[in-house]
Structure formats: structure tokens, C-alpha cells
């Protein structure tokens, strides 16, 4: 039943997958590409909560509470997105123990990620924020399909962190000089994930 009602849509870079304030009618999964969860003020200031790469899901909290979406969901690059209708989601949540267990784990892991993101934004240096933004994409429970090479441009990292491409470039060069990443055109190979995950946390 769920597979028959799943909707798959393509979104171009910069397109809204879901908008803040709209009813949360779908649970959102990324089949291909990269999306972000963010809020923006009328004068253009923004705050990004998380990036979601291929293999990740988002938005379960809003669907569970049947509330209006509290953030925009935006495609950072051309993306193919799977949309599970809220009616199907609630049926699976009520009738499938494996599904409900998966959703609970997702909520728990995402809460931890959001807390870390707020901490990083307020307390870490810019270089450390870039390191943490990259490391978060390797969260095995939330993003199981992330490989050691990220097809991620400096501009896209800037969209995830709220930093300019030039400042991201400086941070990446430092991380590369310290042996945590190798840089190529439009891609980053993580060579020491544990160091990357802990980079800058001594500042706290």
C-alpha cells in the first residue's frame, strides 16, 4: 500500500520542496541530490538547521504533530525526492512496529544533531563549523548512503553553513592541510572522519 502511494518528484537547485507555514502533508526522503532545512526572515537573513543527502529522511516530527511546517525544505542541487503522504505515514506508525521504531530512532538522532548544530553555530570558530557541517553528513543512522567522497561544492557547503564560498574555501584548505580531507573539483574526500568530527570541539 505504502509503495503505491509514494510520490516521487524532481526539484531543481533552489526549488522549494516544502514551505514554512504549509500543512505537513508528506514525510520527505531524498533519493538523489541534497536538500536543506532552513528558515528565512523577510529581510533575507537565514538559519540552516541541517542538510539532508541521498538516503536521508526529514520532517517526521511535523507530520506526527499534524502541524504547519516550521521551516523551508529547499533543494541545494537538482534532487529527486520521495514523498510519503501523511495518511500513509500515520497508518504505518500505528500498525508497523519496525516502522515506528525506525521513526523514534530518527527523531532521537535528529534532536541530537539539531542541538549540536545550535551549539556549533554559537560557540565554534568558522573553520570548526565547516568541519562539523561536513562531518554531520556522515551520520550513519540518519544518512546511511553517504560514502567517503562527497560530491559537494564549496558553494553548497556555504549554503549549509551560511558562509561565503570564499570563507568556506579557506576553511577547507586548513582541513586539507591538517590531513582530514582531500579536495578535488566539486568533491571532497574525507580521509580522517574521526578527526573531522572532533575538530574544534576542544573550544567548548
TrEMBL record:
Specify the HTH crp-type domain's residue ranges. Answer: 128-194
Pfam family for this entry, one: cNMP_binding
Query: InterPro entries attached here?
Result: cNMP-bd_dom, Env_Response_Regulators, HTH_CRP
Domain of life, per lineage: Bacteria
Domain Cyclic nucleotide-binding: from-to ranges: 1-93
Task: Return the CDD domains for the record.
Answer: CAP_ED
Annotated protein name in UniProt: Crp/Fnr family transcriptional regulator
Q: Please spell out the taxonomic lineage of the organism that makes this protein.
A: Bacteria, Pseudomonadati, Pseudomonadota, Betaproteobacteria, Burkholderiales
Amino acid at each position: 500500500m505504502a509503495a503505491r502511494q509514494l510520490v516521487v518528484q524532481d526539484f531543481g537547485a533552489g526549488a522549494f520542496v516544502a514551505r514554512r507555514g504549509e500543512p505537513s502533508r508528506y514525510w520527505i526522503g531524498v533519493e538523489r541530490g541534497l536538500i536543506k532545512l532552513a528558515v528565512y526572515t523577510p529581510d533575507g537573513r537565514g538559519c540552516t538547521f541541517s542538510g539532508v543527502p541521498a538516503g536521508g529522511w526529514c520532517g517526521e516530527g511535523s507530520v506526527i504533530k499534524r502541524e504547519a511546517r516550521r521551516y523551508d525544505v529547499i533543494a541545494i542541487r537538482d534532487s529527486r525526492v520521495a514523498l510519503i503522504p501523511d495518511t500513509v505515514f500515520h497508518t504505518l506508525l500505528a500498525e508497523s512496529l519496525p516502522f515506528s521504531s525506525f521513526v523514534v530512532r530518527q527523531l532521537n538522532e535528529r534532536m541530537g544533531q539539531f542541538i549540536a548544530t545550535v551549539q556549533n553555530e554559537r560557540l565554534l570558530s568558522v573553520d570548526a563549523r565547516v568541519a562539523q557541517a561536513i562531518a554531520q553528513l556522515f551520520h550513519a543512522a540518519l544518512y546511511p548512503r553517504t560514502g567517503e567522497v562527497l560530491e559537494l561544492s564549496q558553494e553548497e557547503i556555504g549554503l549549509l553553513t551560511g558562509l561565503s564560498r570564499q570563507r568556506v574555501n579557506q576553511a577547507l584548505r586548513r582541513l586539507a592541510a591538517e590531513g582530514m580531507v582531500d579536495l578535488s573539483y566539486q568533491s571532497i574526500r574525507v580521509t580522517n572522519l574521526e578527526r573531522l568530527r572532533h575538530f574544534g570541539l576542544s573550544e567548548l
